[in-house]
Design a protein that fits this description.
The chain has 181 residues and is α/β, with parallel strands linked by helices. Helices cover 40% and strands 15% of the residues. It has 6 helices and 6 strands, in the order H-H-E-H-E-H-H-E-E-E-E-H. It has a 4-stranded parallel sheet. It has a two-stranded antiparallel sheet with strand order 4-5. A hairpin with a 3-residue loop joins strand 4 and strand 5. The longest helix is centred in the first third of the chain and has 21 residues. The radius of gyration is 16 Å and the shape is globular. The N and C termini lie far apart (35 Å).
């Protein structure tokens, strides 16, 4: 709820790349049992022919909450199963930091495990435990520790809160370049 594809859509247009958002409506009241997993697999399997036909790269993003679907374990399983057909992982650094702050994961460890499937990353900072979509240096994300994941052929998108002043984005870029050079 409340998330958009606008930063990605604008960047894709600037680079003359085809871009589309694919979303899944999830009924959390239905639980996280085997039926929920079967529904997700069925939805992904329905996308596979479209991925193959169009050459589109589809990436599933991590979410910050405890009921996030898929979890990191599920994400690893899905990517290992469907990566040959074009399914990838999209890591949101702020969401990963929130999950770490809440004690659900170790962000660096999961980024390491999921890096072979990494298509891109959303970049934003977090004030613990869960105030995200801030720009560096407003929060406490250790961006220098994530340097090895910022390299390579992945898309990197700064994802600030709405109404963030442009000068804050420029300062965040300077800080990230310094941390990742």
């Amino acid at each position: 709820v409340g998330m958009t594809g606008m930063p990605e859509a604008v960047l894709a247009r600037e680079r003359d790349l085809a871009y589309a958002t694919i979303a899944v409506v999830v009924n959390h009241a239905a639980g996280r049992g085997e039926s929920a997993a079967a529904i997700r697999l069925e939805g992904i399997e329905q996308l596979l022919p479209v991925i193959a036909e169009t050459g589109v790269r589809v990436a599933l993003e991590n979410l910050p909450t405890w009921e996030a679907i898929p979890t990191e374990l599920e994400m690893e399983s899905l990517c290992s199963q469907y990566a040959p057909q074009g399914l990838r992982y999209w890591h949101d650094i702020g969401h990963g930091q929130v999950r770490q702050n809440l004690g659900f994961i170790n962000q660096e460890r999961w980024m390491e495990r999921l890096q072979p499937y990494l298509a891109g990353t959303h970049i934003h900072d977090v004030i613990p435990p869960a105030m995200d979509h801030l720009l560096p240096p407003e929060g406490q994300v250790d961006f220098a520790a994530l340097k090895k994941f910022a390299k390579g052929d992945i898309i990197r998108v700064i994802e600030p809160a709405p109404q963030t002043p442009g000068e804050n984005v420029v300062e965040a870029l300077r800080i990230l370049r310094q941390a990742w050079e």
